[in-house]
Amino acid sequence: MPSVSRTIRTLAVIAVLALVGIGLAFGRGPTPLATVVQAGAASSLGASDLARPPWFGMRVVDEQISFHAAAPPIKPPDIPAAGGILVDVDTGAILWQHDAHAQLPPASTTKILTALVALENFNADQEVTITSASLHQAWDETRMGIVAGQRYTVAELLTGMLLVSGNDAATAIAQDTVGLERFVAAMNAQAAALGLHDSHFTSPVGLQNAQHHTSAYDLAAISVAAIRHFPLFAQIVAMHNAILPATPGHPEFDLFSINQLLAMYPYAVGIKPGWTGDAGNCEVGMAVRDGHRLISILLNAPYDFRQSRKLLDWGFTQEGLASTLATATPAPAAHG
Fold this sequence. Notes:
By secondary structure, this protein is of the alpha+beta class. It is 35% helix and 16% strand. It has helices at residues 3-25, 33-42, 111-121, 154-163, 167-175, 180-193, 216-229, 231-237, 261-264, 304-318, and strands at 68-69, 83-88, 93-98, 127-129, 151-153, 241-244, 253-256, 268-276, 280-289, 292-299. Strand 9 and strand 10 form a beta hairpin. The radius of gyration is 22 Å and the shape is globular.
């Protein structure tokens, strides 16, 4: 671009921002972002020229979530995982951890954060029209089975995303609402608002990407935020199956949860498994027993559902409850 054009363009940005400042100085409040965007468009300005974050206009759950270490367990369970943590949802106590801050790929457990951002920003009954831009999944990706032109509520897409891990549903929640770039930027802003430092996300899905990573600790905090603030999230992740009745916008769906922990452990109420070749088996588990709520995170863990059951059962023994497994949880030193 010629230097004169650049100068005119820069002056236009300064003029827009100056008008915002004048409004503040005279007590009229800040100019709405939409007004600034319109002014920019009139001056042929692009989005990158405006003084706003890429997730402009979107909300985040503004709550710092942290956990504190409980007294070191005398006999911690042997859990083979690249990273993991077990926390009490209500006290914030860490009952067990192993490389809990290691930055690791989370696979489809990413969708817990996708759900948190969606629920904070969209009404559950908001209707979303599916576009072809959301349906670029490879043949081996998990899908809900949505089709371009169909219409779903946000709650229906969340159900397909969380129960069957539909990458098409996750993409549509972002792409067909505010756009992928803006939605993913809000995901990273949400992680920051929770006070997390191990995470960076590049998609609402969780497919392999060198820049897409989180930690067991951060996933636990994200999960606690979703459970704490949104009963609909807790309701969906606890479902063994769900029927979405046919509507004028889409056919009927009969969805079955791929979270085998729900069938393996009677106290389990969620949350989300994931797998990619890079991430290995991942599982975010949650169980409730006698008023105690525990969340377990295992990243790159073989036999992840069985390991989650074992870890959760052991956690309840640390809170004064008897083991309910046929064989009590073994207790050698932590693996690795």
